[in-house]
Specification:
The protein is built from 10 helices and 14 strands. The longest helix is centred in the first third of the chain and has 15 residues, at 89-103. The chain folds into 2 domains: 2-228, L-asparaginase, N-terminal domain (Rossmann fold); 242-353, 3-Layer(aba) Sandwich (Rossmann fold). It is elongated and about 65 Å long. Helix 4 packs parallel to helix 9 (327-337) and helix 6 packs parallel to helix 7 (279-290). With 354 residues, it is of the alpha/beta class. Strand 12 (266-271), helix 7 and strand 13 form a beta-alpha-beta unit. The strands form 3 sheets. Strands 2-1-3-4-5-6-9-10 form an 8-stranded mixed sheet. It has a 4-stranded parallel sheet with strand order 11-12-13-14, sandwiched between helices. The chain has helices at 2-13, 58-63, 89-103, 120-130, 153-164, 254-261, 279-290, 314-317, 327-337, 344-353, and strands spanning 29-36, 73-82, 110-114, 137-140, 174-178, 181-184, 189-190, 199-200, 208-211, 214-217, 242-246, 266-271, 294-299, 320-321. Helix content is 29%, strand content 19%.
Amino acid sequence: MKRIVFVLLAVLIVVQVHPAMAQGKKLPHIVILATGGTIAGSADSKTSVGYTSGAVTVDALISAVPTLKDIARISGVQISSIGSQDMSDSVWLKLASAVNEILAADTVDGVVITHGTDTMEETAYFLHLVVKSGKPVVLTGSMRPSTALSADGPLNIYNAVAIAGDPAAAGRGVLVAANDDIHSARDITKTNTTSVQTFLSPQYGLIGTTLYGKQTFFRVPFRKHTTTSEFTVKGVTSMPRVDVIYACADMSADLIDAAVKLGAKGIVVAGVGDGNMTTPALNALERAAKAGVVCVRSSRVPTGRTWRNSEINDDKLGFVAAGELNPSKSRVLLKLALMKTKDAAQVQRIFEEY
């Protein structure tokens, strides 16, 4: 921990100074936090499908985009070097602590986080709920490793830094920049396994767009986030276990019962249609709720809401309806909610406000 604090303090002091500074033009100071992912991946050839995630350091990522010096003073911190499929609560907590500490400094204008695309939407939403600053926080990644022919990472980093240094980005919560699009952390989801146009915000659309560092913003999030959020992870070392269980035809009750036995404090069902599941699974979920496990009905369908008390009597069974949140983001919100309450009615209030 002492080493982390020392590195963060050093970041606030040591930056790359652009000649424009000597001419009186103050460039924004942006800190890049690297976690690994495809954007830091390395492959055997420029056209190789396979690659190793997180093989490239934050300094190498910064050096690969020399034009960054024209738009910001840059410094970097290596938080982790993992593929985002291995993202964990412990890395989330470390990342949130670093972001809050860095943004608290008057000398820093914004943060960019490089991240794998597999779980980027979950990390972004987690930070959207626990970052305590209105300064821009922008996640970015890539679908092609850094060694690939026509790698998409360098331009994504350039755009992310430009967004983080744009005063118009402040107060919009945590953002994700990819392929010239700007998404809200709450709305974004990955939709394609390999395409560079994998990220969409299917419910409400984009927050804005960016073109070679020039932004156009369309809207602001209307749900609570960052400085208006009630959640904090200051001093937190662990978070409650929440399991996501995928519904399907002929769904068994076994996995729900197993989650309860293995210590889950919350369960999110990725239901069919409007958060539905088989009768045996529904009965098991009711047993879980009666045992004190907070149970959330979400949907595996990519758009629309999971409505409360529509096809299932949530009031009677003690369930929470996820509304517009997909299963993975419902899990993020439920983990934080459980740190405040185990009352299903209060959790439902939280899902309606966030």
